C-alpha cells in the first residue's frame, strides 16, 4: 500500500476522485480478490456450468453448510466471490425478482433481465450516501429461450456476458487455463473437466472432491442441478 | 495532477470552489474521458447515425453482450461513454419517459424534450447532498417531426445540439476527423463511413467489424435500427 | 486566489464567515462571471429587450440548439448567465409559477411577483444544508399592467430592478457602454442597437448574427418575441 | 480579524463556544453591520416612523424597485438591514401571521405579538442543525390598542422595545444623533426630521430624497403610509 | 481559557468527554453566567418572590419591553437568565403545559410537575444530535396544594428545589447575601427586601427601581402578581 | 488521562475502537463515577433495601426536593447514580412499562422483565448514530413472585443481578464494606445498618440523617416504602 | 496496536479500506475476543450441546442472573460471546422469528433458516450508515427435521455450520481440544465431557460447576434443556 493511496478521495462514500475513479467500488473489488475462486462456463447448444472452491478453514466446519453456488430459479443459478453475507442479500433479491416475473408474466425470467435487475441494485449502492457498495461479484448462469448465458456483475453494477469467466482469488491463473482450453464445441463433461482444471491451477494444489461444488444447467433440461459429491469425485479423478 | 488539486473543495459533494467550479462534476467527466469512444452524426433530411467502439478486454467475453448503443423508442437511440451501470439508470429513465409521453399525448416524444428530461435528472445529482453526479455522457440521436437531431448531455445536466459529436477516450482525435469530413450533403452511407473513419483515428488501429456497433435512424423510416455484423463488415471494408 | 481563501468558512454549506459573508453564494457568483454575457434593457412606454451572446465552441455544434433566452409566459422572458442546467430548473419553475397564476387568478402574473417567487426559491438554497446555491443569474424582462420591467436575480435570492443590466463574463465592459448610451427616450430599435453595441464591447470582437440571440417584449403588443437571424443580421449591420 | 477567531467553535452550526457564545449568530450580525442603515422612532400618543437609506450602486438601477420598508398589515410596517433575500422570508411570514390573526380573532394583531412570532422563528434557526441563522435585523413599528410601538429583532431571535433605534452600517453614528435629539414630545414632523438628521450622519453625505424611503404610522389613523418622493424631498429640504 | 480546552470533545454535539463531561452543556452554562441576575426566594406558609435586574444598555430602550419574569399560570411564575430567545421557547412550553393540565384534570398543575416537564424537554436537547442545549436557567416559583416552591432548572435538564437561589452573572455575590440573610420566618416584605439587598450586591451599584422587576406569589392568594414601579421604588427606598 | 486517549475512536458516536471498545459507553461510565453513591441489598426471604447519599451543595437547597430513589411500581424501586436528568428519562419509561404490564396482563411486572426493558432501551443508544448513551446506572430492586431481586444496569444496556451492589463515586469503598458484611441471613434492620455502614465509608464522613434516603421493599408486604427522616435518624444512630 | 492502524478507513462506518476490509466489523470481532468463552458441539443422530463459562467478577453478583445461553424455541438454543446487551437484541429477534414461523407455517423453524435471518439482520448493520455492527457472535444449536445443527454467526452476518465450535476469549485453546477430541460417535455424555474439557483449557483453571452453564438438545426429545447445577457438578467431577 502506498503512503496516501487515495489522498482523501477514498474516505467519503460514492464520490469521484480527480481521475474520475470511485475508490469505494475499487476497494470493494479488493475484498473479492481475497475471496474463494468461482468459475463459470457456457457453450451454446449445450448449457452452463458453475464450479467453486470451498475453502474450509477448520476440520470442525460442517462442509455441507458452506454454500457458494445458489439456485435462483429452476433455470438459473449463481456463484459468488467476496463477502458471503453481502452476497446473500443479492441472492435473496434475485430469487424474489425471478418469482415476481413468473407471477406477473407467467414465464421464466431471461438470464439477462435478471442480471440487469441485480446490477441496477448494486449501482444504487455506489451513487447514494449512507451505504457502501456490495463487496461481491456474481457469476449468473442459466438457460432461457435464447440459449445458454453466463454473466458477471461487479460492485459498480456493471454486467458483462462471458463464454467463460473467473471471480475471486484465483481469477488470473484460472483465466489462463480457460483461455487455452475453452472451445465452442465442448460438451458438458468437457466443460466440467475444464473448470476443474482451471480451479486446480487457481488453488495451486490437488483437488479434493469434498471441497468443490459444481452446478450444471443443461440446455436439454433447462434445470439447475448440483452434482453430488460422488459425481464430483468422479470428475476430479478424470481430470487428473 | 497538482499536489492538492482542489484544496478541499472537491471532497464535499456539490459545493462550489472559490472559482465557481463544481469539482465532482469535473471529476465525473474524467471518468468519461477514460471510457470507450462513441460517435454521433446527423444530417438534415437524411437521418442520424450512432457508432461506438466495443472494447473487449478478453476473448472469453461474449461480445454480443456488450451494448453501448440503446434503443430508447422507435425513433430515438442513445450511445454512452463512461460508467456503464450509471448509464443504464439514465437509459431506463429515458425509455420510461418516452413511453409515458406516448401514453399521455398519443404521439412520439421529440428528441429535445427527451434530452431535456434526462439533463434535468442529471442536474439534480449535482445540487443535492447525499448523491454523486452521473459518471456518463450520452449521445441522443433521433428523428422527429422537426427532422433529425443529435444531442449530447454531460454530468452537469447541460445538453447541446450537434451536427456531429464524439464522447469518450477518442474525443479529441475523432472530432478532428469529423470537423474535416462533415458535410451537410452526406447521405447515410457517407455518414457511416465518416464515423468509421473517425473511430479508426480514435482507437489508433485497424477496425474490426466485430468490435464496432452502429445504429441508424433514417428520416424516411423514422426507425431506430442496428446494423448487423455483416453490414458493419461491409462498411469497414469500404472505409479502408 | 489567496492561499487559504476562506479559512474553512467556505467549505461548509450555508454558514457565515466571521465577516458575515456566505462564501458558497460568492463562489456561485464566480461561476456566473465565467458564463456568457446577457444584456437587458427596458424603457418605460416602449418595452424591454434581452440580448445574449451564443458562445459556440465548435463548428459541429448545432447553433440553434443553444438557447439562453427563454419565454416564461406570453409577456415575460428571461436571459441567463452561469450554469445552464441550473438555470433550466429556475426557468421551469418560473413557467409553472406563471401558469398557476393564470389558472388561479385568470390574469397575467406581474413581472415583479414572478421575480420574487424565483428569488425566494434561490434564497432557500442558501439557508438549508444539503443543497448548494444556484450557480446562475437571471435577467427577467416583461411588460405588465404597470409597464415595462427588468429584474436581475442573483444566487443569494436578491432581486433588483434595472433600466439596463448585464450579467456574465462581459458585465463590466458592457455596463460601461450602457451607462453612456442609455437614454429614457430610446425606441425599440435604439434599445436593440445599444445592446448590440454593449455586447460587441463585452466579447471584444465583431458581432456575428448567428451567434447572437435577441428577444423583444414591446409594450404595444405585450408579447415575448424572438428575432429571426435575418432580423438580427439587419441590426448587426446597422450597429456597425 | 484575529488568526483563528473561533478555534473551531464557529464552523459547526448552532453550538456553543467555551465562553457560551453562538458564533454563527455573531457572524450573522456582522452581515447586518455591512447592510444599509434603517432608523425607527416612536412617540407615545403620536405614532411611529421608519426611515431607510437606499444604497443605489449604479445609475442603471431602477431606484423604485429597491424596497427596504415593508407594510406588514394596515397598522404595522418593518424596515430591514442585512441580507435582503433573508429578510423577505421573514416579511412574508409576518404578513401571513398578521392575516391569520385577523381571520382567527377578527382583530388586528398587536405589534408585540407579531414581533414575538418572528423572533421565535429566528430562534429556531439558531438551535437546530441543517440551517443557518437569518442574516437580518428588523425594526418593526406600528400602532395598536396599547399605543405606538417599535421593536428590534436580531438573528438570535431576541426582541427588545425601543423609543428610537438604528440597524445597519450607520448604527453607531445615527444612534448618537437620536440619543441627543429624541424627546418624548416630538410630533410626526419632528420625528421625521430627527430621523433624517440621524441618517445624514450615518451615511456621511448630503441626503438625496430619491435615495431615502420613509414610512409613517400615526396614532390617529393607525395606517401604514409611505411618503412620496415629493414629501420626502420637502422634509430633506427642511432638515438641512 | 486553556489552550485546547476540550481536545475535540466539545465540538460534537451531545457526546461525552473521556471524563464523562458533556461540554456543550457546560458551555451553555457559560452563556448563562454572562446573563442578567435573577433571584428567587420562598418561605413555607408565606409564599415566593422573584426579583430580576433589568440591564438596559441604552436610554433609547423602552424599559417596559424588557421582560425577564413571566407568568406561567395563575399560581406560577418564572425568572430567566441566559439567552432570552431560548428562554421564550421554554416559557411558551410551560404555559401550554399548565393549560393542558387544567383542561385535562381540571386542577392547577403542581410546581414540581411543571418544572419536571420543562427539565425533561431540556434534557432531550442534550442527548440527541442536530440540536444544541438551551442556553438558559429558569427559576420557577409558585404556590400549590403542597405550599410554596422554588425550583431551578439548568441546561442539562436537572431541576433542584431551593429556599433561595440566584442565576446569572451575580450568582456568587447574591448567594452570599441570601445565605446570611435567609430565615424561615421571613414575611413577604422581608423576602423582597432581602432579594433587593442581594441584587444590589450582585450588580455592585445602587438600585434603580425602573431597572428592577419583582413578582410575588403569596400563599394566601395563590396569585402571581408583578409589583408596580411605585411599589418597587418603595421597597428600594426601604432597602437602602 | 493519556495524551490522545482514543486516537479518534472516541469522537464518533457508537463506533468500535480497534480493541473492540465503545468509548462513548466508557466515558458515560466516567460521568457515573463522579455521581453520588447509591447502595442496594437484597436477601432472599426478607426483601430489598436501597440507600443513597444526598449531596447537598448549599444550605439554601430544599433537601426534600433532591430525590435519587424512585418508586417504579408498588413492588419495585430504583436508585440512580450519574446524570439526574438522564435518569429521569429511564425512570419515566420504567413506570410506564410497569403500568402497561399491569393493564395488559393484570399482574405485577417481574423485576427482571422490567430491568431488561430498560436495558434494551439503553442499548439502542449505543448502536445508533444521532444519540449518546445514557450517563446513568440504575439499581433496580423489588419483590415479585420469585422473591427479592436487585439488578444493576449500565450505559451499555447490560444488566446483572446482585445480592449487594454500589454505584457512583463511592463504589469501590462501599463495595469492600458490603463484601465483608453481607450475610444471607441478614434481616431488614441488618441490611439497612450494613448499607449505612457502607455509605459512611464511601463518603468518608459521619452520616447526617437529613442527607440520606432509604427505601425498603419487604417480602412480607411487597410494598415500596421510603423511610422517614426520623426512622433514618434512628438507624444512623444505631449504626454508629 | 500500530501507530495509525487504519489510516482513517476505520473511523467512518461501513466503508471499505483499500485492501477491501471493513474495519468496524473487524473491531467488533475484537470485542468478542475479550468476551467469555462459549462452546458448541453437535453429533448427527445424537443432538447438540452448548456450554459457556460464567465469568463472575464479584462474590456479590447473583450468579443465577448471568445468562449466556438462551432458549430460542422448543428445539433451538443459542450461546453468546461479546457484548451482552447487543446479544439480547439478536436473541429477542430470533425468538420472534421462530414464533412467527410457527404461526405462519404451523411448523418448527429449521435451524438454518433461523440462523440466516439473524445473519441477514447483522449484515444490514455493516452496510448502512448510522449504525455500528453488532459486537457479538452467536452459536445457534438445535435439532430439526434434517437432524442436529450447530451454526456460528459473526458481526459481518456470515454464518457457517460446524460440528464443534468456540467463540470468545478461549477460542484458540478450546478449539485445539475439540479438534483432538471430537469424534462422530460421541454420545451426549461424551459431548458434554469434551466441552467441559475444552472449557477448562480455555479458562486455564479448574472448573467450578456454579460458573458453568450447559444446555442440551437431544435428537430423541428435540427439546432445549438446561442442566441443573447438580447435573453440571456431576459432569465436572467426571471430567476431571
Summed up, what is this model?
Chain A has helices spanning 23-33, 84-105, 111-127, 171-181, 188-203, 229-239, and strands at 38-43, 47-53, 69-73, 76-82, 136-144, 147-153, 159-161, 164-167, 212-218, 224-226. Chain A is α+β, with helices and mostly antiparallel strands and 240 residues long. In chain A, the strands form two sheets. Chain A has a five-stranded antiparallel beta sheet.
Order of strands, main sheet of chain A, comes to: 8-1-2-9-10
Oligomer: homoheptamer
Q: What's the gyration radius of chain A in Å?
A: 18 Å
Task: Give the uncertain stretches of chain A in residue-range form.
Answer: 1-12
Major sheet description of chain A: 5 strands, antiparallel
Structural class of chain A: alpha+beta
Strand composition percent of chain A: 15-25%
Number of helices of chain A: 6
Q: Tell me, what's the shape of chain A? A: globular
Q: Helical proportion of chain A? A: 25-40%
Count the E strands of chain A: 10
Rounded to the nearest angstrom, the distance between the terminal CA atoms of chain A is 38 Å
The average pLDDT score of chain A comes to: 92
Please provide the ordered H/E string of secondary-structure elements of chain A.
HEEEEHHEEEEHHEEH
Largest interface: A-B, 40 and 40 residues
